[in-house]
Specification:
By secondary structure, the protein is an alpha+beta fold. Helix content is about 50%, strand content about 10%. The chain has helices spanning about 1-20, 35-45, 50-55, 65-80, 85-110, 115-125, 130-135, 140-155, 165-180, 190-200, 210-215, 220-240, 250-260, 280-300, 335-350, 365-375, 380-395, 400, 410-425, 465-475, 520-525; strands at about 310, 330, 435-445, 480-490, 500, 505-510, 515-520, 530-535, 540-545, 550-554. Helix 1 (about 1-20) packs parallel to helix 6, helix 9 packs parallel to helix 12 and helix 15 packs antiparallel against helix 16 (about 365-375).
Length: about 550
């Protein structure tokens, strides 16, 4: 029966992974849609002259130190398909995170059963936060962090002593994965904390003091502390401080509101406006508080031998199908305790920084899934109801069921077409030539969150237009590419946004009623016309009217 149930669970897990990826597969052929994504890709190119400086000694985006994430883009360029290969890598990382969520749950709570572990995997696979990460190449750090943290827990030896075949090797692998998590994103430092929790809980001690004492003598805790200190020292040296986000334009009340809203990963995000839905926040807080309370209570009942959960006798084997490998008895406190520490630890890690992004909570999803699994495996009706309601909210608001807003896909697809057109036009010019551009920017739904930098600090053109120019400069080195105007419109508008009239001394651009100038001389005056003066040779103007591109010599 175990073999059949294992095969069935593997099939269900595969279905969950497919269901998670199907709603976002259309993004694979698209060029990067954000400035940050383009920067990760351009700087991560193996042929980039500053590659190693970018990977190892750069303050990534002025707030963090993420060399593992930077290096992952270099690895992505080795894959076939170019940018498409990078996007496939993103999807593969998410699939691995889903599978590891299930595997780690089975490893730490084998008596819980396969169905609750599959429910945990479903939370990670189908959560409405997932498209926010998988649709944007710049957000790989979140998936990488979760995956490396899960791998660290997969590898960590569960035996309390230092003996046992492969114990020190597994400990080294676990600590190494924790280091990769911490150098993928700041949230990854929680991996060291989770390893310490496992080391203490699995030490065999009957109370906290004896458990800590035994863990100190074990193969995990000491190396984990040492490597964590080394990573913090390296990060501090590069950043000249701890680093992190700071809100430039929000007060205490807004930070508290953001914390209450964004710290609750059950909340289905609102795509169609800038305000958080109150009912969704309240429901999420209630369910999240219930899950954490159940996790704390379940961990307390099982801590230090209170309710032993013996692993199967076959766990001691090293057979290919073994999820554990060499471990001795372990307590049922492990999984809920890890879930609670992970979830609340992330809140503590981010709370002082004053800037919350809903997408940050993607790192918490494995912990949330485990809390749902613990609730569903509980024999009490109230616990089961909380777990079932949480799972229903996640699935009901997922991209698979609810879908994405209608304007998201066309905005991203048309923006990719604009970037490709600008890059192609730049490549056709001789080195040293100047390409001035007039570009469309297609609006798409925003997600409410505090920003790391205020608008007054962004004394540049809108990010949605800069990515096309940034990508063109990388595709056609030696050409000077600039933006003279940006016209914004909804992606559903299929008619040209700009008309062109050539004169002897200038090119006059007139925007259509469907669009509005976002940048350029006419943006300040409100005029419908924009004049671009003609210049000397080797200067060109590319006008993309939202439908097609037209290149003119100035």
């Amino acid at each position: 029966m175990g073999g059949r149930s294992g095969v069935l669970a593997a099939l269900v897990l595969l279905v969950l992974i497919v269901a998670a990826l199907v709603p976002v597969m259309w993004v694979v052929p698209l060029l990067p849609g954000s400035r940050d994504a383009a920067l990760w890709l351009i700087k991560g190119d193996p042929s980039h002259p500053d590659l190693w400086e970018w990977v190892w000694s750069t303050q990534h985006f002025r707030v963090g130190y993420r060399p593992t994430t930077a290096l992952s883009y270099t690895v992505g360029w080795v894959l076939p398909g170019g940018v498409a290969g990078q996007r496939v890598l993103d999807l593969a990382l998410h699939a691995a995170t889903v599978a590891l969520t299930y595997g780690v749950a089975r490893r730490f709570a084998p008596r819980m059963g396969r169905a609750p572990a599959l429910a945990a995997a479903a939370v990670v696979a189908l959560h409405p936060l997932v498209p926010m990460v998988l649709l944007n190449l710049a957000r790989r750090a979140y998936t990488l962090t979760a995956m490396w943290t899960l791998l660290a827990l997969w590898c960590v030896p569960l035996a309390g002593g230092v003996s046992g075949r492969g114990t020190w090797g597994r400990a080294a692998a676990a600590v190494g994965c924790a280091a990769l998590a911490a150098t993928s994103h700041e949230a990854g430092f929680l991996a060291f904390v989770l390893l310490a929790v496992v080391a203490v809980t699995a030490s065999g001690g009957r109370d906290l003091g004896s458990a800590v004492s035994a863990a100190v003598r074990g193969p995990v805790l000491g190396p984990a502390v040492g490597v964590a200190v080394a990573v913090v020292a390296l990060r501090t040296a590069v950043l000249r401080g701890v680093g992190g986000y700071r809100s430039a334009e929000h007060g205490v009340a807004e930070v508290v509101q953001a914390t209450l809203s964004s710290a609750v990963p059950l909340q289905g995000i609102r795509w169609d406006g800038d305000e958080v839905q109150l009912w969704a926040t309240v429901l999420s807080l209630v369910l999240f508080a219930g899950l954490v309370a159940l996790g704390v209570e379940r961990a307390a009942r099982g801590a230090f031998g209170g309710e032993p959960d013996q692993l199967p006798e076959s766990a001691g084997s090293s057979s290919p199908g073994s999820l554990v490998g060499e471990e001795a008895p372990f307590t049922c406190a492990a999984l809920p305790l890890l879930a609670v520490v992970w979830a609340l630890g992330l809140v503590v890690l981010y709370a002082p920084q004053g800037a919350w992004f809903p997408r940050q909570m993607i790192v918490m999803l494995p912990a949330l899934g485990w809390l749902v699994a613990v609730a569903l495996a509980d024999s009490r009706a109230v616990a089961t109801a909380i777990g079932a309601a949480s799972l229903a909210v996640v699935i009901g608001r997922s991209g698979l069921v609810q879908g994405l807003p209608a304007e998201v896909r066309p905005a991203m697809e048309r923006s990719s077409q604009v970037a490709a057109a600008v890059a192609q036009a730049a490549q056709q010019l001789p080195p040293g030539a100047t390409l001035k551009t007039v570009l469309p920017r297609f609006t798409r739904p925003t997600v409410w969150s505090l920003k790391a930098r205020g608008a007054q600090e962004r004394k540049e053109l809108p990010l949605g237009s800069r990515v096309a120019v940034q990508w063109a400069k990388a595709a056609a080195p030696g050409r000077r590419v600039t933006v003279v105007a940006v016209v914004g419109a909804r992606a559903e508008v299929a008619s040209p946004l700009v008309t062109v009239r050539e004169e002897a001394q200038a090119v006059v651009l007139t925007r259509a009623e469907a669009g509005r100038w976002l940048a350029g001389a006419s943006a300040a005056t409100g005029s419908a016309d924009l004049t671009v003066e003609r210049e000397e040779a080797d200067s060109w103007l590319l006008v993309h009217d939202g439908v097609g591109a037209r290149r003119l010599q100035l």
